[in-house]
Amino acid sequence: MEKELSQKKRIATLTLDDGRQIELPIISGTLGPDVIDIHELGKVGLFTYDPAFFSTASCTSEITFIDGDAGLLYYRGYPIEQLAEKSDFLEVCYLLLNGQMPNAEQKSEFEHKMKSHSMVHDQLARFLNGFRRDAHPMAVMVGVVGALSAFYHDSLDINNPEHRDLAAMRLLGKVPTIAAMAYKYHNGYPFMYPANKFSYVENFLYMMFATPAEDYVPNPVLVRALERIFILHADHEQNASTSTVRLAGSSGANPFACVASGIAALWGPAHGGANEAALNMLEEIGDVSRVAEYVQGVKDKKYRLMGFGHRVYKNMDPRAAVMRETCHEVLKEQGLENDKLFKLAIELEKIALNDPYFIERRLYPNVDFYSGIVLRAIGIPTNMFTVIFAVARSIGWISQWKEMMSATDRKISRPRQLYVGAKRRDYPPLDER
Ligand code: CMC
How many Å is the maximal CA-CA distance in the chain? Predict the structure, then answer.
């Protein structure tokens, strides 16, 4: 890929106000806009300034492609709509990790391997028991996923491809188990061990909602809905949490520690915390009659419309369209067709999409606008929404980490800054301050 990219030899010329001209290569990917390669600019004493990375490609990647203007999302070239309709989550995991769709044999071997990694070290349950019961489950996730590196020492050699594979399988196998344990612990219910007779998603629902006292039969409509949520959230190129994982990984940190840092970044309401925040917002609005007043508050910049807007999508988030459809299916299945929050969401979407404030800023519903309603209808409590996102995104994080670690020209990521602080000054004695 690198070779193919560098063969183009197109040049951008940067002219400085002192007359210097600097030639910068322009490189093209397989899809998407060209990029200007500025990585040698530092050698002539110049840096670019791009806070929050509005115009910066931080790496090359073959995993996920987004066209925000056209509203397109592809995993390894496959459109998200096709994957959401025809595939299942483990197949998508295989695809993201390995670059190709598995054949029947590879698929069954992958599923088998994943199941063999679903249990956690028994001591990990004691570690989890140290948290306060009222801890937010995302706090538990950050801590316990990070702690995997204290339990699985034999998969921490980041320079060994077999260790990297093993760590990836362990992470993906164990993350749903840890998430379900966080939920059970918070509520004082006994932990449920994983059950290998179930699929990945069925097993997650089983560990969440089964009790040792009763048989548990997964509902296929709810399983399919959660499968879709997992697929839609599986990867999203260099978003805040994935970039965090890559940044941590660039220093040579172990994969469990890197993914824990990704979970921490995901937690914020501008990122993965948006699904929880969007549902809380709908509950706060409470009634269709209050939508106009709420939208006015958004326009007055008192608060943001959660589940709306995206750094990259300046058109409908393709995941939101799939999610809206899933929302109908789940509410019907659960007998919640007249769900108050869903009606409210539809009304809010309608008003916002027709309002010049949102039109001018190209703000559309994102995946989290509807995913909260689906999760709530499945019976998942609000404080677990971002945890579900973390379970789904673990495959994206570990695939991106593996891609970075297998590159031969790996370097520690080290941004520079535009310093705007005090100039040099002398240390003042205490009595002169
Ligand atoms: N509600 C109201 N106004 C908004 C919103 C919103 N949700 N999002 C952006 N704006 C306005 C913003 O006030 C600004 O207006 P102005 O130009 O007058 O100052 C303009 O749109 C551009 O906003 P920005 O903050 O520069 O845009 P950004 O690309 O930095 O932010 C975002 C992207 C996702 C953080 C933002 O749209 C947001 O806060 N949305 C709500 C949170 C949310 O739903 N996040 C989930 C994203 S999808 C899941 C994921 O991938 O994590």
Answer: 79
Active-site annotation holds for 310: yes
List the strands of the sheet with 64-67, edge to edge. Answer: 64-67, 72-75, 78-79
Residue list, ligand 1 pocket, CB within 6 Å? 236, 239, 270-272, 274, 298, 304-311, 361, 363, 366-368
In sequence order, what are the residues at sequence separation of 6 or more whose Cβ sits closer than 8 angstroms to the Cβ of residue 324?
365, 370
Alpha-carbon span 321 to 344, nearest angstrom: 17
Q: Where are the alpha helices (DSSP H) in 334-409?
A: 340-353, 356-360, 367-378, 385-405
pLDDT in tens, 145-175: 999 999 999 999 999 999 999 999 999 999 9
Instruction: State how far the Cα of 139 lies from the Cα of 432, in Å rounded to an integer.
Output: 45
C-alpha of 111 from chain center? 22
Q: How many residues does the chain have?
A: 433
Closest CA to 332 of 399, 371, 278, 377: 377
Distance separating alpha carbons of residues 301 and 287, to the nearest angstrom: 21
Choosing from 271, 287, 339, 426, the catalytic residue is 271
Which residue intervals of 22-88 are DSSP H helices? 80-86
Q: Give the pLDDT confidence of 199-248 residue by residue, as tens digits.
A: 999 999 999 999 999 999 999 999 999 999 999 999 999 999 999 999 99
CA nearest neighbour of 273 among 364, 393, 353, 174:
393
Residue 412's SS3 state is coil
pTM greater than 0.85:
yes
> Could you give the CA distance from residue 21 to residue 260 in angstroms, rounded to a whole number?
44
| Half-sphere exposure for 77 (CA within 13 Å, toward CB) | 7
**Distances in whole angstroms, Cα of residue 353 to Cα of each of 129, 357, 366, 372:** 46, 9, 12, 20
